[in-house]
Amino acid sequence: MPDEEFVVTPYEVRGRVDYDRLREMFGTQTLGPELLAKLHHIAGADLPPLLTRGIYYSHRDLGPLLDGFANGKPFFLYSGRGPSGPMHTSHLVHFDLCVWLQRRLGVRMYIQITDDEKYWSRAGLTREETAKWGLENLYDILALGFDPKRTHVFFDSRSIAALYPLAIRVARKIPYSTVKAVFGLEPSSNIGWVFFTALQTVPAFWPSWAEGTSIPCLIPCGIDQDPHFRVTRDIAEGLGYPKPALLHSRMVPGLQGDAAMSTTGATADNALFLNDPPKTVERKIRDAFTGGRATVEEQRRLGATPEICSIWALWRTRFAETDQKFDEITRQCRSGELLCGDCKGQLLERVHRFYREHEEAREKAKAWAESTIVTAAPRPL
User: Fold this and answer.
1) What digits encode the pLDDT tens for the residues 318-348?
2) Closest Cα to residue 315, out of 276, 348, 339?
3) Which residue spans within the chain are E strands per DSSP?
4) What whole-number percentage of the chain has pLDDT above 90?
5) Which fold has domain 268-363?
6) Which of 34, 43, 305, 338 could form a disulfide with 332 if both were Cys (CB 3.0 to 4.6 A apart)?
């Protein structure tokens, strides 16, 4: 959504984002202590850092969904990935939370790999490339620890027989004027891009359709993706399905100080890609934008500003194993006790370890990835 100071749309994030203001502009609800306490009670375990450190900060209808689950009504998870290239660490934020929720609550997970949408919307990408990156991205996602028995994948170009029967009904409910207004489509936009909204909506309803009963859906996503699912929520009840609940995260800042870790309109040095070799990872982190001062003396005296630092953001989202470690890093940064070079060195150890462990898990995930792809509709529409 354009603003004097920042822009946040499903396809662009620019400027220094005021997340509280953005939440008000989008009309979402604050993810406060009461809801977090309820989730903690239901899960029977400490909440993950993504929740305790405020990465997820906004929601739509999470309370009723949790109340229903506590009273014996199951829900399922839905998230996805548009494969335009290798994944980077910020892409994992939504899947990390989904893994935790699946493990703690035993819920099903539906993943959508939108290789069609990326071909329609990203100039310069071939069909072969989106299909190839779709599989590569899927391996990276499954490697995070999803349960093969409770995880299902819609790989759009391969799952169209499963998606299309319900997409027909969804498409009839969505006026072109809505799609044009929400996504800013131009007269020159291809019709595939226009139709994609119907396909992206289907997974939010698919289990309810497949099983002939009402099953709520929870979608963890970046708040920049909220417009997609406002359309889904608007038509849900008219089709006889529950409105999906949403959990919104902040965007992970780019390594060069941008509002979001992305390569759209930026260089490859803005993100930590999961296929980056160790030397590249080290160079990117060593060169990353920080909240440090101009000199060591000044930083010792005045301290640094962690809130604008891309390295602190990485500690916050993944690499500080405990809240105690994160609080320590933050305190030492702010006081000037910890210099940026030393902070980057500590982070690098953890990043390298994560990359090694992820690569091992990725190789194992390849063996069962194909079995998760849904290729047929469960029943005629």
Assistant:
1) 999 999 999 999 999 999 999 999 999 999 9
2) 348
3) 6-9, 12-15, 29-30, 56-60, 76-81, 108-113, 151-155, 217-222, 245-249
4) 84
5) Tyrosyl-Transfer RNA Synthetase (1.10.240)
6) 338
